Amino acid sequence: MRNWPLFDLSITTPRLVLRLPSLADLDELADRAAEGVHEEGFMPFLFPWTDGEPAERARRTAQYHFRAWGALTPEDWALEFAVLHEGVVVGTQGVMAKDFAVTREVSTGSWLGRRFHGRGIGTEMRAAVLHLAFAGLGARHAVTQAFEDNHASLAVTRKLGYREDGITLHNRRGEAAVTQRFRLRAGEWAETPGVEVHGLAPCLPLLGLDGS
Question: What range does the record give for the signal peptide (predicted)?
Answer without folding.
Answer: none
